[in-house]
Amino acid sequence: MALEPELFDALIDTVRRFVAERLRPLEAEVEAADAIPDAIVEEMKALGLFGLSIAEEHGGLGLTMAEEARVAIELGRTTPAFRSAFGTNVGIGSQGLVIAGTPEQKAHWLPKIARGAVITSFALTEPDVGSDSGAVQTRAVRDGDVYRLSGTKRYITNADKAQLFTVMARTGEAAGGRGVSAFLVPRDLPGVSIGEPEKKMGQKGARVADVRFDDVPVPVENRLGAEGEGFRIAMQVLDRGRLHIAAVCVGVAERLIADCVAYASERRQFGKPIAEHQLIQAMLADSKTEALAARALVLETAAAKDAGANTTMEAAAAKYFASEMVGRVADRAVQIFGGAGYIADYGIERLYRDVRLFRIYEGTSQIQQLIIARETLKRGG
Q1: Phi-psi region for residue 151, left (φ > 0), alpha (ψ -120 to 50) or beta?
Q2: Do the Cβ atoms of 113 and 54 come closer than 8 Å?
Q3: Residue 157 and residue 121: Cα distance in Å, rounded?
Q4: Contact, 117 vs 44, CB < 8 A?
């Protein structure tokens, strides 16, 4: 159910002010410390950001996909690390539960996830498994009332602070995704260990780490769906996650464009503001056009998803176009700022590094191309 228009407008206004007044002033601090202040995380919880996509009956805001996309666009106007603090709770870390959880699983976990009392992570990628996500080698062997889970997951967002992992593991001998099942794995089960956070190119403050499972006894009742349904669940989760990421890309692009306009209006060369030079205007025009196109694609696809349409192709197209688009916008922003764009004080080089990840996680651009082509062929055009 969509929120009443007045309530949703109030939410958007609150998020916009939170980004402008609380988050943007802290961007350099988060970059330097590679951590988000605890006080900010508590404010996010109070605003309900950890439960954007979780139904009201479980303590969340219960936003539609279209509403979530618009909130994500607003959150994109600051460093993406802030959104990552609660992004797994909103998306890939909770949606498996929402899609395939039993009433008991939902009642136990979703209220805690919605209020941020439990941080979630989605554990699919492995040291030798990335884009070929149906090839997971982590195994879960049935042993009476438990599954014995063993394997390593890599580059897991929020692993260092997660209390609950949605883990994809092989339970059968069937090839590819048909042998993969999904499990809810609490961090405090014996045999679960977390590696040191990785050093990354960008998005400092959003940490990723390995998660190791050493003969972890996972209760049978923690399985999501039936055996062999894990890959299907993962793909449904990623469909929604890709739309969310695409919306964030739109927000970052709009922030970069606004920063470029402000700078170009003040910076003078050859006796006038550089905004009056046509080649600068051309870069602004290209960036604005692409950002508008991405916004339209994201919102149209989100509305179609809310209406019950199959949006696998459209979600892939939105993620592909928006993530590539924001990379081009960030590159032009560095060019418009010139030397200042390469200097840390202005924040442009930070966003340039931050947005590079969007073309990789939740499916690389090349995987999106394959999905788009496959679905286009399936639909006959």
Answers
A1: left
A2: yes
A3: 6
A4: no
Q: Among candidates 98, 100, 106, 155, which has minimal Cα distance to 127?
A: 155
Residue 239, both tokens: 């469909």
Helices 278-306/312-337 angle, 10° precision? 160
Single pTM value for the model: 0.95
Q: What size, in residues, is the chain?
A: 381
Distance CA 302, CA 112 (A): 26
Residue tagged 């339209």 (tokens) = 296
DSSP string, 236-295: HHHHHHHHHHHHHHHHHHHHHHHHHHHHHHH-EETTEEGGGSHHHHHHHHHHHHHHHHHH
Determine the Cα angle at 170 with ends 362 and 54, to 5°: 45
- Hey, what are 329's tokens? 């916008």
What is the gyration radius of the CA atoms in the chain, in angstroms?
Answer: 21
State how far the Cα of 87 lies from the Cα of 355, in Å rounded to an integer: 16
Amino acid at residue number 266? E
Contact criterion met (CB below 8 Å) for 90 and 244: yes
Q: Which of 280, 258, 257 is CA-nearest to residue 268?
A: 280
- The pLDDT score that the predictor gives to residue 1 is 66
CB within 8 Å of 75: residues ≥ 6 apart: 15, 19, 82, 83, 248, 251
The predicted-structure confidence for 61-118, as pLDDT tens digits, reads as follows 999 999 999 999 999 999 999 999 999 999 999 999 999 999 999 999 999 999 999 9
Cβ within 8 Å of residue 171, ≥6 positions away: 139, 140, 141, 142, 147, 179, 180, 181, 227, 228, 230
Percent of the chain, pLDDT > 90?
95
Dump pLDDT digits (tens) for 115-154.
999 999 999 999 999 888 889 999 999 999 999 999 999 9
Query: DSSP letters along 297-335, please?
Result: HHHHHHHHHHTT---HHHHHHHHHHHHHHHHHHHHHHHH
Close Cβ partners of 329 (under 8 Å, ≥ 6 residues apart) = 252, 253, 256, 257, 287, 290, 291
Residues involved in catalysis: 362
| DSSP per-residue string spanning 175-233 | SGGGGEEEEEEETTSTTEEE-PPPP-SS-TTS-EEEEEEEEEEEEGGGEESSTT-HHHH
Task: Say which DSSP state 21 is in.
Answer: I
- Quickly tell me which residue has 């970069």 as its tokens: 256
Handedness of CA 363, 364, 370, 372 (dihedral sign): positive
